Fold this sequence. Notes:
By secondary structure, this protein is α+β, with helices and mostly antiparallel strands. The chain has helices spanning 2-13, 89-100, 124-140, 146-161, 168-175, 218-228, and strands at 19-28, 40-41, 43-57, 61-66, 71-76, 107-114, 180-185, 191-195. A hairpin with a 5-residue loop joins strand 7 and strand 8 (191-195).
Amino acid sequence: xxxxxxxxxxxxxxxxxxxxxxxxxxxxxxxxxxxxxxxxxxxxxxxxxxxxxxxxxxxxxxxxxxxxxxxxxxxxxxxxxxxxxxxxxxxxxxxxxxxxxxxxxxxxxxxxxxxxxxxxxxxxxxxxxxxxxxxxxxxxxxxxxxxxxxxxxxxxxxxxxxxxxxxxxxxxxxxxxxxxxxxxxxxxxxxxxxxxxxxxxxxxxxxxxxxxxxxxxxxxxxxxxxxxx
Length: 229
């Protein structure tokens, strides 16, 4: 996949990318809706991921191409446009959240491709957010630890996209490790890696049910949980 997205970037933009970033999707072994209720979760990063190949440009803009959709998006980093309810809301939201934290963002050309199925409950949106967040970190030269990166990506989804998700998805994508699950206390954000037993495989079954959190009952459920607490 890495060689493919580099080749695609070269063909589309006529030069080699400066960086290539991969951010995985996730499956959750324990804890459902417990992340925003200050509970425990036990996610694993999976072998499906979002990939971004990118290079710096001199102007404060982002020129993006979603390879899988064959769609482009361009926006100014000086004034992030409002939500458009499309795939580019996720990189736009990350840029918005980074600027909210006063980070200076480098303009970029980028190609996005993802093997995380959309609407499958495997955190395709979080993978895109983390991939673009880390790409901007590398191109712009600011310093963030992975936990802070995950929190900024969660802020993008909460404050810009409009989905009041907990921290599970972004933390699993940013801090997953091969051969391990990550036990996360969502109240304190303390976490530890838990080795997976030898010979264990995590199998994801496709129920054929698709979901879009931004247009689903998710925010309603979260409000009900908060009222109960």
